[in-house]
Structures are given as structure tokens and as C-alpha cells.
Design goal:
It is a multi-pass membrane protein. Its main location: membrane. Pfam families: RDD, Zn_Ribbon_1. It is found in: Cell membrane. One of its GO terms (cellular component) is plasma membrane. By secondary structure, this protein is mainly alpha-helical. It has 2 domains: about 40 residues, no CATH class; about 140 residues, no CATH class. About 55% of the residues lie in helices and about 10% in strands. It is built from 7 helices and 3 strands; from the N terminus they run αβαααβαααβ. Helix 3 crosses helix 5. The longest helix has 27 residues. The structure holds zinc ion. Zinc ion binds next to loops.
Length: about 180
């Protein structure tokens, strides 16, 4: 039996996880979670939550995947410095908006897709669920993305929260009501 809370592989006849003590029966787990708030009552089998460094690696993969083509496009389409500071500022602003648009469509589109993950999260074996273990909508994923900008603006403290919270949630996960979980093999 695979523990949905910590990923521990348990003997078939075990009723409770030998490592973290969580009930292995999903129905029993839901009951204990509701009563004690000790465990997540996620009704899907996962290998636990996506930890801080795993999520940093996923972000690096996504950053390379989108960052490199965007940098190439910027190089191709951004006008060369003309000495006109106003034109340059306009171009910079336009480019920032293009970046936000591309990242929004990518993050919200992928997180609300059947994969429930960006390519980076997929590579690192993670996906995003709501508190019931289900897939999030595009609108919810958009809210999560906007909250992620907030997480980043707070000197990345919103991201660092992943390392210190019980269910490894960043500020954006709390705001959007999401969990990042590891795929059970
Ligand atoms: Zn466990």
C-alpha cells in the first residue's frame, strides 16, 4: 500500500503507514483528516507533496523552455537602440507585456490541462490539484498565476513558504487553494 501522505510503500495488510501513521484506507484517511486536520484528505493516490528544491528545478526547466525562445524573439523583433529614450521605454513595456501574456497562457493553460502541470513540473513528476484532488479550471489557474506574481514580488517569500508549510504550499497555493503533488508510480 502506497501512503498518499508521505509516499512510503507499506505492507499489503497494514492499515496505517509505518512511517507517518496516516490511515491507508482513503475513506478512513478522509475521516481522520476532517477530525484532526492532521493529514490531507486528498482522495487521489500521490507520492506526497512537491518539495521546495524539486519545484525550483521545475521552474528552471520552464524558465529555459520559455526563456530561450523569448530571448531569441526579443533579439529579432526588439528595435535596436535608436537613442530615443521614449521609443525604447515603449518597446521595453511592450516586451514586458508580451512576456506576461506568454507566461500567463503557458502556466494557466498547462495547469488546467489534462496534464495539470507545466513541462517543468511534468519532467519532475509533479502536478497541481485542488483540495479535493481534482483538476483546476483555467480561471483558477489564472488566479494562481497572478498570485504567483505576488509571491515573486514579496522578495520570493511567497515561494519560500513551500519549504516551511505543512503541505508545502507557496503563498500562491494558499490563495488559489491548490496543492502540488508528486505522481505516484
Ligand atoms: Zn506515510
Amino acid at each position: 500500500m502506497h501512503c498518499s501522505q508521505c509516499g512510503q510503500e507499506n505492507p499489503r495488510e497494514a492499515r496505517f503507514c509505518v512511517k507517518c501513521g496516516a490511515p491507508l484506507d482513503p475513506e478512513e484517511l478522509r475521516m481522520v483528516a476532517r477530525e484532526t486536520g492532521r493529514f490531507s484528505d486528498m482522495p487521489v493516490a500521490t507520492a506526497g507533496y512537491g518539495g521546495f528544491w524539486r519545484r525550483v528545478l521545475a521552474a528552471i526547466v520552464d524558465g529555459l523552455l520559455l526563456g530561450i525562445p523569448l530571448a531569441v524573439l526579443q533579439h529579432l523583433f526588439m528595435p535596436a537602440p535608436t537613442g530615443d529614450p521614449e521609443a525604447m521605454a515603449r518597446a521595453e513595456l511592450t516586451w514586458s507585456l508580451v512576456n506576461i501574456l506568454v507566461w500567463w497562457l503557458y502556466a494557466a493553460g498547462m495547469h488546467s490541462s489534462v496534464y495539470q502541470a507545466t513541462v517543468g513540473k511534468m519532467v519532475l513528476g509533479m502536478y497541481v490539484v485542488d483540495y479535493q484532488g481534482g483538476r483546476i479550471s483555467f480561471a483558477r489557474a489564472t488566479g494562481r498565476y497572478l498570485a504567483e506574481i505576488l509571491s515573486a514580488m514579496l522578495l520570493l517569500i511567497g515561494y519560500l513558504m513551500v519549504a516551511f508549510t505543512r503541505r508545502k504550499q507557496g503563498l500562491h497555493d494558499f490563495i488559489a487553494g491548490t496543492l502540488v503533488v508528486r505522481r505516484a508510480r
